[in-house]
Structures are given as structure tokens and as C-alpha cells.
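Human: Here is a favour to ask of a fellow structure person. Comparing notes only helps if you start from a blank page. I am asking you to supply a protein in sequence and C-alpha cell form. Write it directly below this note and I will take it from there.

Assistant:
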Amino acid sequence: MFLELTDHLRCPADHPEGYLVLIPDRMEGRQVLSGTLGCPVCHAEYPIVGGVVEMGTADLPRERASAMVPNAAALHAFLGLEGPGGYVGLVGDAARQADELARRLPGVHLVAVNPEPPLRASERVSVVRAPRMPLKARSLRGVVVGLPEAAGAEWRSQSVLAVLPGLRAAGAGPAPGAAESFELLGTAEGWWVGRRT
């Protein structure tokens, strides 16, 4: 896990958003290889093992994650990002494209949430496993929500809210509605792209 990502993570428990406290055990440069994240609100503790933040598992049927994930060039176009800095979230099977997308977005750190194995944490990609969106509202430059998480309305809504206003979210399945601070820009072949309002 990238050390500075701590400021953007939230406890997945059902309480108002707050900060997490990091106690690193082992680091390599700016990467936390092992340690603990603690929540001052509910006192939950989440281990970091092999660079992966373990907040729990999403109780979702993984067999639904069989739709084709667009290639990294398409995801890059969906996000419409230029320039370095910040974080982009890749949820579910969208994280398949993490390594290639990292090459297309120099200076941008990727956060893979609930990726399929064998994706591992690296210098450019942090891995978080969580039962709900573990990133704070208005903390990302963009997000792509793949299956199976994209099938859940709560995952889609929380993912859109994690994006900074004016920037883009994309995903598989049904698009979020305008009530979710979202403006739909387009749909094609089971994927949607829109802007956080």
C-alpha cells in the first residue's frame, strides 16, 4: 500500500466518514508492506499483509464477473485524464487492466479494490479488499467500477461519490442516476461513462 493512500481511505463500517490511523510494521520506500490501519470511530483494526489492505470481503457472487472488461486504452479514454498526480480507483474486474493503465497514466497512483487474483500491490498500484467502497468521498480523480461490484447500486453510488466533482466515473451494468450526483455522458456495450456533479 502506498503510504499517502492512508489519507484517502475510510473505514468500511457503517458510520460517518473519518480518518484512519496507520501503524506500519514494515516498509520499503513509500510502500507499506505490513502493518495495521485503525479506525478511531469504531475501533476496528485492519491488517496490511504483503502490501494489501485487508478490510474484509465483499459478499458478491464472483461468477457474475464474466463480462468483457474494456482494454486499458478504452479505460483511459473513459476517464479522460491528463497529467500526473492523484488517485484512480479500479473496482472488481476492472482492476484486470491496472498494470497497463498505470503505464498510460504516469504519475497517477491506482487503487485496485477487490481485484481478481493474481494482481499484487506494487509501486504504482495499491490493493484493498473491502466489503464496501473504502475510499473517501471526493478523493479520486476517476473510478472504473467492474463486476461483480458494479451490479450493486450501493457500490456504484459510493464509487461515484469518491470522485472529485467535474471528473469521471465509468462502469459496467446499469448507470447511476442523477440523484447520485452523476451526469451520464454515454453508454455502449454494457458500459457507462459519466461525470460527478
In short: The first strand starts at residue 21 and ends at 28. DSSP finds three helices and eleven strands in the chain. The mean pLDDT is 93. Residues 153-161 form the longest helix (9 residues).
